[in-house]
Amino acid sequence: MPCCKYLFALFLLFIIASLNATTRIVDINGSGQYTSIQTAINASSPGDTVLVYPGRYYELITIQTNNLSLYSLEYLTNNHDFVDTTIIDGSASSLCLRVMNSIQNVVVRGFSFTNGRGTLLYPNSQTRIENCNIYGNKSFDGAGMYIAEGTAYLSGVKIYDNYALNQGGGMYIYGYMGTVNVTFDPVNRCSIYNNRAGAGQDIVAHSINSDLNIPLEMFTVANPSSYYAAPLRALGNEFQLHIDANTAYHQEVNSDLYVSPDGDDANDGLSPSSALKTIHTAVYKIASDSLNQKTVHLLPGTYSRTANQQMFPISLKSWVKVKGAGIGETMIIGEPDPLITNQPLKVFASLDQRHIGMEGMSITTQNTDNSCALWGFREDHVMLKNVRMHELSPKNCAVIDISYVT
């Protein structure tokens, strides 16, 4: 990658902008001052800029300096290719980015954050994130982004294909016992889509202080329910998420669907001969219709992470029943994710859903001493019929653990 013209443009821009601030060049290939982003950040003072050249950086980026700007070459060129080629890789075990407590006026622009535990903005921090991709991350809550009682401005950020074991596959906004202020750019719109979680597939906002307007370029579905975007409300708190998306990622299927241990998630799932493989995928794809309840039919066999890549928890959806072939015919064996083992294992989970149902199956777990069959919060009408729940380990929960249920 030629660098002379970028260096010239860089120094011309920043020398004119400020004689006091320092710009630190990071290039993994050695042509800059640093080969590590974190080393450059650690050497920075308030007002400095860290400019990163393309490459895959296996780092946990920690920002604890006020008034710091972290840019890729996308900032200088407006070339989005630099977003795709300037990658922060969390090595499947750590956060990709964290902005620490009370750190103010941080700007992050032009990166991809992937293969880690996402991005975390700590309490009382103030961060602006622009033109970034956040994908392929896995965490307990908020696998793409976790905003904890802080201020964030998001512009042109794409959050997709992330997985949260608990809640908020794409984003988890936490405002409990503090203030949180999240603003989405209405012009350079963000996109949040195709994330998965135990509950609240794309967004969960916990005890926010007011209604949250979320203008987006793309969301998962055209008319999102709490299955996709859920306000996790304290009792009596009725603040809402108002999503305005220009396009939808996928269309839900207005039909019963079939799942088989030998199926394939590339199938349409419309018949036993074209069954899907994972229960979570079937519930995700099926339409929720209060006038015509749908059923996900589980064909006989064993469903587990080891046997056929099942994803736990299996997130339940309003007006959808998950029906096995019988207690002795359909066996669900919950297993913990090997990367997230220090949390309770929920086989099925539901957050703020209506008329959910489970029928004709056996549920157990293995390789865990902390598990439950069904977890829920603020549920309305739960139907369980001919379900055997056995050999579970409700260490920090109950076999059926539902709060605020009608």
Give your account of this protein's structure.
The chain has about 400 residues and is mainly β. The protein is about 10% helix and about 40% strand. The chain is built from six helices and 36 strands. The strands form six sheets. Strands 3-6-9-12-16-20-23-25 form an eight-stranded parallel sheet. Strand 26, helix 5 (about 280-285) and strand 27 form a beta-alpha-beta unit. The protein is elongated, with a radius of gyration of 23 Å. The model is unreliable at about 1-5 and about 15-20 (pLDDT under 50).
Radius of gyration: 23 Å
Shape: elongated
Order of neighbouring strands in the sheet with most strands: 3-6-9-12-16-20-23-25
Number of helices: 6
In summary, what is this structure?
The protein is mainly β and 406 residues long. Helix content is 10%, strand content 41%.
Secondary structure: elements and pairs:
Layout: H1 4-17, E1 23-26, H2 37-42, E2 49-52, E3 55-57, E4 61-63, E5 69-72, H3 74-77, H4 81-85, E6 86-89, E7 97-99, E8 106-109, E9 112-114, E10 119-121, E11 126-130, E12 133-135, E13 138-141, E14 145-148, E15 151-155, E16 158-160, E17 163-167, E18 171-174, E19 181-184, E20 190-193, E21 196-199, E22 203-206, E23 212-219, E24 229-232, E25 241-248, E26 257-259, H5 279-285, E27 294-298, E28 301-304, H6 305-308, E29 314-315, E30 320-323, E31 330-334, E32 345-351, E33 354-365, E34 371-377, E35 380-389, E36 400-403
Parallel strand pairs: 1-2, 2-5, 3-6, 4-7, 5-8, 6-9, 7-10, 8-11, 9-12, 10-14, 11-15, 12-16, 13-17, 14-18, 15-19, 16-20, 17-21, 18-22, 20-23, 22-24, 23-25, 26-27, 27-30, 28-31, 29-32, 30-33, 31-33, 32-34, 33-35, 34-36
